[in-house]
Specification:
mainly beta, seven-stranded mixed β-sheet, 11 strands, four-stranded antiparallel β-sheet, 123 residues
Length: 123
């Protein structure tokens, strides 16, 4: 069992930055692939970014590539998402999740989820 708690969301103007954190507890954090997803009102939850257990490989959705950076600190059991050049269309609830596989794009591959943190980008 892995418990995940996101933080760092908030209200920011377009062009601004936020850094999300996801604190993990329970089973060995470092053994999991970690991902970020987001869900806007009335839309399905969508993949944002993922990172391998070692941090050696990352993957991003096209919509955030070049603006967002995923990272992890296995010594602190924490996952991060640095979000720069934010746009109003980035407004959503952001979730972190843990998976045992590198099939990262689909929610079904992730066994553990946090409760989410709201990110609102004003124009």
């Amino acid at each position: 069992q892995v418990q995940l708690v996101e933080s760092g969301g908030g209200l920011v103007q377009a062009g601004g930055s936020l850094r999300l954190s996801c604190a993990a507890s329970g089973r060995t954090f470092s053994s999991y692939v970690m991902g970020w997803f987001r869900q806007a009102p009335g839309k399905e939850r969508e993949f944002v970014a993922a990172i391998r257990w070692s941090g050696s490989s990352t993957r991003y959705a096209e919509s955030v590539k070049g603006r967002f950076t995923i990272s992890r600190d296995n010594t602190k059991n924490t996952l991060y998402l640095q979000m720069n050049s934010l746009k109003p269309e980035d407004t959503a609830v952001y979730y972190c999740a843990a998976s045992s596989t590198w099939v990262v794009l689909t929610t079904a591959e992730y066994a553990y989820w946090g409760q989410g943190t709201q990110v609102t980008v004003s124009s």
